[in-house]
Write a structure and sequence with these properties.
Layout lengths: L1 H15 L7 E6 H5 L4 E7 L4 E10 L8 E14 L6 E16 L14 E19 L4 E20 L7 E20 L5
């Protein structure tokens, strides 16, 4: 699991060596940090209006003996910028892949109440589209807002905390939010 994430980020970093001003950026999503999920993204310019972004997040923690939020995801993404790279509005197409093991808690607003009595352990592969906007803060810093939706294939085991309910395996396709972001972006060698 660690090897996959490190290899992907290492390859993207290696591709960016030797690039010129404003050709690559690093970022982190504050919303993921709010859910105790460390994350990192790297973005490389392809042209004046195009970039490739790859982000990864990993949450290894079990809160207590009943609450699990464990997961890892990797999301490669193509972005088209309407003005120029790393500036203002963009649209994107992305893939998402990873594994999850979570349950035993009550989400806010009584969403997914089944998570209180069940755990879900499996994998996800998704395809989605997104929109976003980067705000200029300083020559090296931007603030990015982003959102995305898509369709996902979930392959998982449903495990109940109630002993009388058997373990169940399921595979299904469903629409999901693939991205929600409030990210700090650091631009390397920026000339803004």
């Amino acid at each position: 699991m660690y090897k996959k994430i490190l290899l992907t980020l290492g390859l993207l970093f290696g591709m960016s060596l030797g690039t010129t001003a404003q050709q690559w950026a690093a970022k982190t999503n504050l919303i993921y940090w709010a859910t105790t999920t460390p994350n990192l993204g790297v973005e490389v310019a392809l042209s004046k209006h195009s970039t490739i972004n790859i982000s990864a997040n990993y949450n290894p923690w079990t809160i207590d003996s009943h609450i699990k939020l464990q997961h890892w995801f990797v999301k490669p993404e193509y972005r088209y910028w309407f003005t120029e790279k790393y500036t203002r509005a963009f649209v994107s197409a992305h893939l998402l892949g990873g594994e999850f093991d979570f349950g035993g808690f009550r989400p806010p607003f009584r969403l997914f109440d089944a998570l209180v009595q069940r755990y879900y352990k499996g994998s996800i592969v998704a395809l989605g589209v997104g929109v976003g906007y980067q705000f200029y803060i300083s020559p090296h810093w931007n603030l990015e807002l982003s959102a995305g939706v898509g369709v996902a294939r979930l392959d998982y085991d449903r495990i109940s905390r109630v002993a009388s309910e058997p373990k169940r395996h399921d595979t299904r396709w469903m629409p999901i939010p693939t991205e929600i972001g409030l990210s700090f972006v650091y631009l390397f060698n920026s000339r803004k």
